[in-house]
Design brief:
single chain; 402 residues; two-stranded antiparallel ribbon; 4 helices; disordered C terminus
């Protein structure tokens, strides 16, 4: 085809433009992905697929068909995954309701035990208790609570002592008046009826120092890692794998101190004085009151100086199994709250709390605590992270208790 266009050049009226290379193409309509298929017939209108292959004949081209997509990468296609958004390759579904155990609590309306309360609201989600009785108000229903009255003693232990597990004498009740509460004596294996004398327990073996990595699992929030590395001068950097913040710890002869917290992305920093994480020793049943101060910086500017205090008590000694190996343990309680206690294992460090347990430990190199006193006072405060875990555990127990 040849197209002649008259010229408007007044200086040369005979001039003209000739176009002789014209291709004619039928207008097909809007084609968003520019694959030659109009949007009104394209089986993947936003994904180029000129071949329009549709293997399962569902009207969606293979190029954009989510039929075999696996959003949570657990090896189970979304269209059959009973937890489409939560990793659960085993597809466990304890109550057979079509919703996997891994995401049961996400939906909020499931009632595993059939007592009329959704698992989210049920204080014993796996034990039918339509009355929802909770004597000690710890978010665990009496039917699934090992300590119904909240006095720190297991129900069976109270019955063995001739007490009423429904009536609390208080956590500091001391039958033999030896200065150590009954529930602590039960945990450390001493007599609650005969007065005993208690000596300091060294805690150094329960907080290893050096370059190490511990992996934990939280029954409600999943897995995470805590890594520590040596930075010199008896100081150590510690951080969580999913956090932009890190802590600086300092080892002294009387304990491990948290001296700094840095959050690089948000440009926040806290400088601590006398904030004790782990004392070198404690006497069972004797709370220590620990005070500290800190400066808070934002974008390098001092925002204020603050003070705080907590108390810490050694409430138990025992043993636990760690991947087939028996390890010695100690249990620490924060602020007189039994539900906020933590267990530390010899050679491993933090071992377990309400909903958290150590899964694996890797130690690249280990260092000894300082043997002589360094500068700094013997005061301090507890590890606020583990206090937070304790409080989160109390809140989540209502959904996880069995």
């Amino acid at each position: 085809m040849e197209l002649q266009v008259p010229s408007n050049n007044w200086n040369d009226p005979d001039e003209q433009i000739i176009i002789d290379d014209i291709e004619y193409q039928i207008y097909i309509g809007p084609d968003w992905d520019d694959d030659g298929i109009s949007d009104d017939t394209d089986n993947c209108y936003s994904t180029p697929n000129p071949d329009q292959i549709d293997s399962d004949k569902d009207g969606r081209g293979d190029a954009c068909d989510s039929y075999f997509d696996d959003w949570d990468a657990d090896g189970i296609a979304d269209f059959v995954d009973n937890c489409e958004w939560d990793y659960n390759p085993g597809q466990s579904d304890s109550d057979g309701d079509g919703i996997g155990d891994a995401c049961e609590y996400t939906y909020g309306d499931n009632d595993s035990d059939g007592d009329g309360f959704s698992d989210w609201d049920d204080n014993c989600p796996s034990t039918a208790n339509p009355e929802q009785t909770d004597t000690d108000r710890d978010f665990l229903g009496d039917l699934c609570d090992d300590d119904i009255d909240g006095d720190g003693l297991d129900n069976r232990d109270e019955e063995a002592l001739g007490r009423d597990p429904m009536k609390s004498e208080g956590i500091w009740y001391d039958s033999d008046a030896d200065g150590v509460a009954d529930f602590i004596e039960m945990k450390i294996g001493s007599s609650v009826s005969d007065a005993d004398t208690f000596s300091s327990v060294g805690l150094r073996p329960y907080f290893p120092l050096g370059s190490l990595k511990n992996s934990y699992v939280n029954d409600y929030y999943g897995e995470y890692e805590i890594t520590m590395e040596t930075i010199g001068n008896n100081q150590y950097k510690r951080w969580f794998n999913d956090d932009d913040c890190y802590s600086i710890l300092e080892a002294r002869s009387d304990g491990i101190y948290h001296i700094e917290q840095v959050c690089e992305e948000s440009e926040l920093r806290w400088q601590f004085t006398d904030k004790l994480v782990m004392p070198a020793e404690l006497v069972p049943g004797e709370p220590i009151i620990i005070a500290y101060s800190y400066e808070r910086f934002e974008d390098g500017n001092l925002m204020g100086i603050f003070t705080d205090s907590y108390n810490l008590t050694l409430i138990g000694r025992g043993q636990a199994d760690f991947n087939g190996t028996t390890v010695n343990t100690v249990e620490l309680m924060y602020d007189n709250d039994v539900s906020a206690s933590e267990t530390y294992a010899e050679g491993l460090g933090f071992f377990s709390a309400d909903l958290v347990k150590l899964q694996s430990s890797e130690i690249s190199s280990q260092e000894e605590w300082p043997s002589s006193r360094n500068s700094g006072s013997s005061g301090g405060a507890v590890n606020l992270f583990w206090l937070l875990l304790g409080s989160l555990g109390v809140m989540a127990r209502r959904r996880l208790a069995s």
